[in-house]
Amino acid sequence: MRSDAQANRALLIDTAARLFVQHGDAVSMRSIAKEAGVGMGTLYRHFPDRDALIFAIGTNTFAKVRTLAASVSSAEQFDEFVEKLAELQLGALVPILTLVRREGIPQEIWDDRQRTVREIERAVAIARDAGVIREDVTATRLLIGLLMSIRPLPDNVPVDFSDELAWVRKNFIRSLKA
């Protein structure tokens, strides 16, 4: 793939992920192309339908999570890993995968998810073995707790609760400590 085509593909994935985080499933393919500054033809050349774009967001997100987890080589790096994981806004992105209209999620996405969970488990084990986090913390518990504590509120909530959401996330992370 040409470098400009790769750049457009990455831009479309990042733009779509950001818009889905901000607006949920109401985001149209047209609004994604417009926000990315590309034509509809460019969007559909890369992603023939909405499902293909959603799968690409999932694959891209799993890759980001694996990269973050792989950067943990000592227990001291665990807190930074969890904070960066929270910044990915997984609580908003994970439900996007449920929007898929095809017959289920392809096996390669499930395999990608398993590789990601294994890499997170490796990072969790480093912190757990060093006594930094509790013995009962697993990759799955970390992910579920983090997803629940960072899930965005609906767009129609009239009050800004960003400070309260930050408090919830901070206290969830604190609850992991040994």
Describe this entry's structure for a reader.
This is TetR family transcriptional regulator. It comes from Corynebacterium vitaeruminis DSM 20294. It holds the Pfam family TetR_N. There is one protein chain. By secondary structure, the chain is mainly alpha-helical. The chain has two domains: 48 residues, Arc Repressor Mutant, subunit A, CATH 1.10.10; 127 residues, Orthogonal Bundle (Tetracycline Repressor, domain 2). The chain contains nine helices and no strands. It is globular and about 55 Å long. It starts with a helix and ends with a helix. 23% of the residues are buried.
Would you summarize the structure shown here?
GO terms for molecular function: DNA-binding transcription factor activity; transcription cis-regulatory region binding. By secondary structure, this protein is mainly alpha-helical. It has helices spanning 3-23, 29-36, 40-46, 50-70, 78-87, 90-93, 107-129, 139-150, 162-175.
Tell me the layout of helices and strands.
Layout: H1 3-23, H2 29-36, H3 40-46, H4 50-70, H5 78-87, H6 90-93, H7 107-129, H8 139-150, H9 162-175
Helix pairs in contact: 1-2, 1-4, 4-7, 8-9
Structural class: mainly alpha
Radius of gyration: 18 Å
Summed up, the domain count is: 2
Kindly identify the CATH topology of the largest domain. Tetracycline Repressor, domain 2
Number of DSSP E strands: 0
